[in-house]
Structures
1.
Amino acid sequence: MADVVVADGLSRWFSAGDERVTAVRDVSLRVGERELVAILGRSGAGKSSLLFLCGGLDRPDAGRVVVAGEEVSALRGAALERFLQRTVGWVFQSAGLLPLLTAEENVALALRLLDRSEADAAAGARAALDAVGLGDRAGHRGAELSGGEQQRVALARALAKRPALLIADEPTGQLDTETARAVLAVLRRTADAGTAVLLATHDPGAAEVADRVLRMEDGVLSATT
């Protein structure tokens, strides 16, 4: 199983007045193809900061991260933008749909940004919605969907571009137990289909679908016992 994510010695710190707060402390991590790695930890433990470093939304103060063969921490300008658009799919706690667009239009928009034709983007959007079990809701506007449905549309939007890496940051944080299980099941199927999945969560149910469960505390990543 080839490594999609290779992070070595990542550290990230921030200034808080006269003090320096370390959000990520000397973290090394590997995530392979078809692997779902869950990171558990309380709020403020550094999970989101680590995900942002792995996904290219932030740069480390020390260490390096390589995703799908590209050294993310060295990318700048157009190269970084291309990486963010094509290599990584993101799902956050809030679905972030455009409420006046339909589910299909929300997903297709992500593909149009990749210069896909209107017809190709629409077909890709429908296929992605079918994959998350929402093909019958494709014509409903974002504001007409339940919270769980919106989150699955957000998953479809991330998956439609077929990223090498899917990063999910607390995707079940606002969902009831049954809906959260459905979202986790989609993440499991995504990994089984070949995508590397990195999940940060409070949800103990993640352990049931993950290949590995790690714990983060005070910026330090460790294996669970």
2.
Amino acid sequence: MSRGILVAEGVSRWFTAGKERVVAVREASLEVEEAELVVVLGRSGAGKSTLLALCGGLDRPDEGRIWVGGRDLDLLSEGEHENFLRAAVGWVFPAAGLLPLLSAEENVALTLRIMGQPESEAMATASQALSAMGLAERAGHRAMELSGGEQQRVALARALVKAPALLVADEPTAQLDTETAQGIMALIREAASSGTAVLLATHDAAATELADRVLHMEDGVLRERVDVG
């Protein structure tokens, strides 16, 4: 039987605060298939960001195993881990994190340039990615000249331009107004429907409306699946 793009089995992560051990994620298991949008819903401090950091390869679990695209992250060397995840995983955070003096197009192309793509090719691909986000007319504007919603769309284009197997979105609408947030969620839904596996964490129940599956997280524990319409 084939496995999902993302598979996490019995994943735990804890931190030490003085003499006390604080468990952020407790034996979490989940799977995200190709073209599936899975939302992890929970309040701030529930452990969602830690879980996403583990699943997206930014952190390593104290217990459990994680596979992305069929690769066991625990078996990769540091160099292999960095190179594989740079190509296989796209990230979107609450803040866009763009370089303010670069244009929207340059911000997106930078991802491809880091991966070794020639500048002219990277810029052309970035232009196409921004057009898909409805930002063709804003591609030449510096990031600091864009609205918050436009910046987040650029960040999404930057995450998707390398065609990652997995998109990890950590509270991508947290700093946006309701209408803008709905637009970002629609673009993420479109990315999933086009074949990308998406794992998204949020505390906003409205963001679950477009999900294929919704999981709940509380006190580091990932709860059972909740079906959505």
3.
Amino acid sequence: MRLRLLGVFAGAAMLCLPQHQLGQSLPLDPSRIPAGAWTYEFWEGDVHVGDLYSVVNRQDDLLVSTSYLSLPGGRQEGTITLRASDLVPVHSHVVLIQGTGAFEARMRYGAGPDSLQVQRQVVRQAFPPGQALPLRSEWSVPRAGRYDMQELDLVIQALPLAEGAGWQVVVLDPTVDHPVSVSISVEGRGTSTTPAGSFDVWRVRARGLVTDMIYEFDVRDHRLVAQHAPSQGIRMLLKR
């Protein structure tokens, strides 16, 4: 799951590569997604507020990603299960608890040849005041380029990252009652230094979420090395 908000480089000049258009299938290769377990440091400004534990594993024809983040006065947990062959979502579960507020939701998907049937169930919610979501909702969306919010980083890992490449996707976020369009762009290649060491990385920006998210992926194996939400002063750095 990594950091999912309810998102010094010396790269060469960006090339004018064709940009993917919304509604087209993405050039995904799920074998690019590394399986394993990782721990990340979570920072708000200059304050280390906790660690995030993430696991990605393959189970037969499924890919399962889980994570747990403990914060002062709260926590965030998430699980997403996908078809390993094409990353079509099967089901997801997210829990957000902060202070006296709580939100928990489940998403289930049924994939047809051209469409994705979505069922959302809000199990509990106590924030924000006055913005309650329907407890249950169902809708149908075109299948191409549509993914669960919790798999966005996995989708990026499966893409052919290259200077200037870009794609458009739609994510289905259980915390809002409508699909969200997200623009993904590879901003360059550089070096990222974390508690786990220094890495040659691709820097990728996702726009259209609550805030812009910047991902840094190891060039060699597409492992997530760091993630930033600059406007909110949030950083996540690979620890081990």
4.
Amino acid sequence: MKLENKKSVFIETPIPGLVIINKPIYVDERGSLQEFLKNSEFKREGHLFHGEHAAISCSLPGIIRGIHTEEWNKLIVPITGKMFAAYADTRINSPTFGKVFTYEFDNTKPNTKRTALIIPSGVGNSICVVDDQPVYYVYLNSEEWESSKAKGIAWDDPDLNINWPVKDPIISERDKNNPRLRDVFPEKFK
């Protein structure tokens, strides 16, 4: 699938509001620097983001996390490792409801240009570690994470039909018990 790049660091995906951020990396003898959030650029491109909660996550080989559908915006930046990610649109009034966009992040080399991603509220995100190294990534949420607000869709939902790159993944109890999309939104499947 070819993505549209309008000579911008922001690349629109087929799911409205799900945006890849591909910023330049500056490398010298000390290492590298790469920004992933600069509000003036976000505003200029029409992508407003306000962060309230930041965290670093580590996922081990064979792990699948998600599909997490909390009602807040997210900005993620994978830092290390190789990660397959699947994003499912669960916004009931979206023209791309039920559609999935997949993307692979590869940050296995030093001074690699990292890609960030804006994930709008209602677009479910999930990751899968695809090689033998852990994946570390930073995420910034527009609201503070609370377990009472945690929501999700089954990682193996047949309606989403995600072709995961690992067999027999390690899944958390929470993610094993997430409902299918048609169980949450039965009116969309009549």
